[in-house]
Amino acid sequence: MTTTTTEDRQATTLLRFATAGSVDDGKSTLVGRLLHDSKSVLADQLEAVEHASLSRGKDAPDLALLTDGLRAEREQGITIDVAYRYFATPRRRFILADTPGHVQYTRNMVTGASTAELTVILVDARNGVVEQTRRHAAIAALLRVPHVVLAVNKMDLVDYREPAFAAIAEEFTAYAKELGVPEVTAIPISALAGDNVVEPSATMDWYGGPTVLEHLETVPVSHDLAHCHARLPVQYVIRPQTAEHPDYRGYAGQIAAGTFRVGDDVTILPAGRTSRISGIDLLGTPVETAWTTQSVTILLEDDIDISRGDLIVPSKDAPATTQDVEATVCHVADQPLTIGHRVLLKHGTRTVKAIVKDIPSRLTLDDLSLHPHPGRLVANDIGRVKIRTAEPLPLDSYADSRRTGSFILIDPGDGTTLTAGMVGESFAAPEPVKDDDDNDGWDF
User: Which of 36, 77, 31, 34 is nearest to 53 (CA)?
Assistant: First the structure.
């Protein structure tokens, strides 16, 4: 019989993290160095990078090419799309999202950081905290990323001086605190030389903290979803109707948050019908308990009309249903979002028709000021919206659950994703705006 040690369990944990920063701060080089020095690069990949580097007149391999996969990215020397990389060390598995630095690709950072438990924000030690640094910190705060790492890069270009690092770390930490970022870890690095990325730096003996990889391997992985409100968006109703299973009726989906147990009293939303869990199947095997991210089939004591898009929740902890949604959103489409815009709102597995009722404010990320009643949001804008849906939705606050407190708005004409939304208040929430016509002009 084999036993599972604490180290074995730690090695199976998964950390999702994203990198961000201004243009030319060295994000792709950091990621390349991280992959290279942790021996997570295949021989043929390294050979291709060496060949590409030589063709560009470089004496040493340009590790940034390990992540800049698009031809346009390699030609321009920038990151355009979100580059996802999967790697592992003996201590932990990682999913990494390398996001672009240009302002016009800010929306890509929202995509990459939306599921991240940690964000690495790079700063050029020569330039310090710049506008894009503040923008990425604000997005990390809006998305409620639990951990933020400030990587002060290119320390070799400021002679590895501690005062240069300390001044940047102090300025960024103060700004992040104002945003409500719960934790900031500052690390001085040189991605090009490899200082404090995987191996400790021999030239910065004044720094006694962890390397980037050491911090990634040891930072506590957030398990908050396993302990918050239990939620199962139904994806599929299983009814074999075979001789072996003539009466089987199961409701399949991935648990978005919390824990379900056999015997729990549950409510099915938005209809509000109630029942009790009589069984849980996990990979074809009956279990007594299931938790966040597991894909399961739940069986109930009563035959209830349940379909895709319904939400199974504990009866004692059911969210309220509403047709009026107030949220902070990041607009990601080139087409503006305007008042009166008819859209589809997708929440979990449910998609309903909706209308943008009001846009009370747009956030100016440079100084966190609010521009009232802008009338519309354009690509990369962050603002507050009020939305009226055609059907009631069971919504959690994004502050309580990142999974069930988020949604996207979709163009009903071509299926384009327009906007990513976070339900409830945020640091961007404006003062309440009185609207005397709140109940006028709606046809559902």
Answer: 77
Q: Could you write out the DSSP letters of every residue in 294-312?
A: -EEEEEESS-----TT-EE
Instruction: Give the separation between CA 331 and CA 329, rounded to whole angstroms.
Output: 6
Q: Structure pTM?
A: 0.78
Buried b (16+ CB within 10 A) or exposed e, 312-328: bbbeeebbebebebbbb
Name the amino acid, one letter, at 76: Q
**Per-residue pLDDT band at 50 (split at 50, 70, 90):** low
List the one residue out of 182, 256, 128 whose CA is nearest residue 427: 182
The token pair that represents 167 in the structure block = 């001044």
Which two structure tokens, joined as six digits, stand for 32? 């390349």
Which residues, in sequence order, are CB contacts of 224 under 8 Å at separation 6+?
Answer: 146
Is pLDDT at 219 greater than 50 in this prediction? yes
Let me know: does 271 contact 313? Beta carbons within 8 Å. no
**pLDDT tens-digit profile of 255-284?**
998 999 999 999 999 999 999 999 999 998
The sign of the CA dihedral 236, 354, 438, 371 is positive
Degrees (nearest 5) of the Cα angle 410, 392, 400?
80
User: Residue 11 belongs to what H/E stretch?
Assistant: helix 6-11
Per-residue pLDDT tens digits for 80-129:
456 778 888 999 999 988 777 566 666 677 777 888 899 999 999 999 99
Strand partners for 210: none
Rg (CA), the chain: 24
User: In whole angstroms, what is the distance from residue 432 CA to residue 190 CA?
Assistant: 46
Is the sign of the CA dihedral 349, 355, 358, 361 positive or negative? positive
Q: What are phi and psi of 410, to 5 degrees?
A: -125, 140
Per-residue confidence at 226, pLDDT binned at 50, 70, 90?
A: low
pLDDT of residue 1 exceeding 90, the answer is no
Residue 290's pLDDT band (cuts 50, 70, 90): very high
